[in-house]
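Q: My labmate handed me this sequence with no annotations at all. I'd like to see what the chain might look like in three dimensions before we decide whether it's worth expressing. Could you predict it?
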Amino acid sequence: MPVIFRRYGPRWLIYALFIAISSVVLFPIAINFFTAFKTSADLLDSSPLSLPKQWNFDNLQNAFHNGNMLTGFKNTAILVAVSVVFNTVLGAMTAYVLNRFDFRLKALIMGMFVVAMVVPFYTTEVSRFQIIKELGLYDSLGAPLLIYAGTDLLQIFIYLQFIEKISSQLDESAMIDGASYIKIFTRIVFPLLLPASVTLGIIKAVDIMNDMYIPYLYMPSRDLQTLSTSLMTFVGQRASDYELLSAAILIVLLPTTLMYLFMQRYVFTGITAGAVKE
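A: Here is what I predict for the chain of 278 residues:
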């Protein structure tokens, strides 16, 4: 709770503010949940926040079948597993090089990462699309895998905080014993980065599962759809099947919700551990 509220804000005002913020977040979820179990007639005759007159669980089954969710789960699992592995290794290696080595273009490389975070990626989408197409990766899992595998500034920042707390004397001792830089990284440094790797892996996995833009643009085929792009099945130009769409949203929310519930402590632990210096 912010200090300013503890000192100057009445307790009822604090509670009212928290209730208002929670309502903004929970109301859309509640509307979607109730809509997912309503029939078409019930949806037209009732208010969005009213309970279904008759709970229709067939919407979940129809949404799973019509939305080709099984294919979406498979493709999403492949994207998450492969991308997180490559993304974690590349991010850790990049941070290790930037922390342990001094070279002429070090500041320029860090600046390029900052620029890449500041510049909206939509402005470079035409160039990226052309590169993906020239590589022959369009309409294949290789396109999003190549994009997701790239590291970013958040990864480098968190990894740098962890690597700074790993003494360079460990590297020197290993080099005296004849270890190469690759062995030092794989045998000594990378295992000590496990808390950061778990944190960043969870954040990246949730980001990939929630992303609709890249899979929809680079994998238009139905057999390559992901959980997020499968929602487009229930949306048309003239009409939408809202009850099935809401049911499909519940199915899509399930993996990310479970991941957050079981992994949230690792996320907070990894971020706070890297932010505190001894």
